[in-house]
Specification:
Shape: globular
Distance between the termini: 30 Å
Strand order of the largest sheet: 5-4-3-8-9
Length: 164
């Protein structure tokens, strides 16, 4: 995706096949999108490990994880944090799914989630909380951007169940 083109002028990636990619993830593993053909995949991008909103979001995905599994859906959290940070965050929250590390922003750029945000009155560049659903054939079928955590994970679960 060309970063010089404003988002509103870019063609939507919805209903298009997501190019295969790989990235380091917790559990000393490498995420490879092609490995999940035949399953739905939830990729949720979040700003930072161990922050209040991201902790709440992780806990809610954790608590509904069995229902995502019943819906033939794998869940992965993605942020720019290191694998070491992710391992600690995953252990602290007892997350039953893996976290993907994107320190060089390759995936953040691919999914166009880097935004200018206001933090305490300052403009800072950061990850816009966003969730993407990839169907069993590898097609991007839903995206939520600028996510507010309350109620969001329930909405994601309802969407993947409806795809079943």
């Amino acid at each position: 995706m060309d970063q010089d083109i404003p988002v509103e002028e870019r063609p939507s990636a919805l209903n298009k096949i997501v190019p295969d990619f790989s990235a380091a993830m917790t559990g000393d593993q490498t995420f490879q999108l092609a490995d999940y053909k035949g399953k739905k995949v939830v990729l949720y991008f979040y700003p930072k490990d161990n922050t209040p909103g991201c902790t709440t979001e992780g806990i809610q995905f954790r608590d509904l994880h069995p229902q995502f599994q019943q819906a033939n859906t794998e869940v992965f959290g993605i942020s720019r944090d290191s694998i070491r940070s992710h391992e600690g965050f995953k252990a602290k929250l007892a997350l039953p799914f893996e976290l993907i590390s994107d320190p060089d922003e390759t995936l953040c750029t691919m999914f166009n989630v880097m935004k200018m945000k206001n933090m305490y009155g300052k403009k800072v560049r950061g990850v816009e909380r966003s969730t993407f659903i990839i169907d069993e054939s590898g097609k991007l079928v839903k995206e939520w951007r600028g996510v507010k955590v309350p109620g969001h994970i329930d909405e994601v679960l309802e969407f993947v169940k409806a795809l079943a």
